Amino acid sequence: MPAPAGTGAATEVFAAIGEMPVGRWLVAVSGGRDSMALMHALATARGGQIAAVANFDHGTGPHARRAMELVEHEGGKLGLSIVTGSATQALPFNEGAWRSARHAFLDAWALELNATVVTAHTRDDEIETVVQRFLRDAGPRGLAGMRASPPPSGATARVRPLLAVARETVAAYAASRGVRWVDDPSNDDRAFQRNRIRHEILPALERARPGFGEWCWDLGARAAAWRADVDALVESLDVTVPAPGSAVVPAGRFDRCEVAEWQVLWPAIAALAGVVMDRRGIERAAAWAPVAKAGQEIPLSGDARIIRTAQTFVVRGTP
């Protein structure tokens, strides 16, 4: 598909969108600059593939209502269908609660419209995610960031066409095309770790070590490749998913695994059951697996657990 003519930024944005497969898309648009630019570019290059534009009001104040109104107005001008939602109750003032509510809204509409969610995350967002995961002592699975493929356990996929595009390039595209947006004041609130990383930690590290951001990008790419290799290995070892929220491991295939090998395998196996293991859980499960007896079990985070049967290990997620 030829890219529409325009500035260098537009050429790069349209080239990134051109790499998307043909699909049916639900475009997540917050009303901020990056997502408004994505909506504009997708409408220009792939308008016929957009099932709808989705905006969710987290109930965080007047700016969120203005953002929804802008998405409806600008999306309507582009001839796009708009679906909106609002928090049904007051959400805690934290990113986790906002993300969970937003994802539930997007997933419901994606199912309703038989569409795949598209988001406007950029290269800078991915670098910030890698740093955030690093500060949380994440292993390779976590450091893969947004480039990690979802596990084959029913996890909802996200397509991020701008993930290799710098935020300043998206900003230049928005300026060149007269894209309108609403600034979210929470993006400057240093109470949130991501904002401290964006505005303070990363700039300081970049000054101390020029190229640090690109090193983080490369680290995330290597972690994503490693994670994909481990996931492929686990799939080849007859691990099955008999029902959502569970994974069954044939114990005989793993008889010779040592603790260090279990530390690599358990997070990938647990992911098949929709379970995310933290570092302490991984270490405990890895030390337990080689000596576990039939009938024994070990708890994981939440109500998840691993059960040893006569022939298998069974991972059960939170009901």
Count every beta strand, where a strand is a DSSP E run of 2 or more residues: 9
Low-confidence stretches: none
**Largest sheet, if any?**
5 strands, parallel
Q: What is the structural class?
A: alpha/beta
Report the CATH architecture of the largest domain. Answer: 3-Layer(aba) Sandwich
Strand content: 5-15%
> How would you spell out the order of helices and strands?
HEHEHEHEHHEHHHEHHEEE
Q: What is the CATH third-level topology name of the largest domain? A: Rossmann fold
- Indicate the percent of residues in helices: 40-55%
How would you write the strand order of the largest sheet? 3-2-1-4-5
Shape, please?
Answer: globular
Summed up, the helix count is 11
Roughly what is the average pLDDT, rounded to an integer?
91
Subunit organisation of the chains = single chain
Rg from C-alpha positions? 22 Å
Q: Please, what is the CATH homologous superfamily of the largest domain?
A: HUPs
Termini separation comes to 45 Å
The overall number of domains is 2
CATH top level label of the largest domain: Alpha Beta
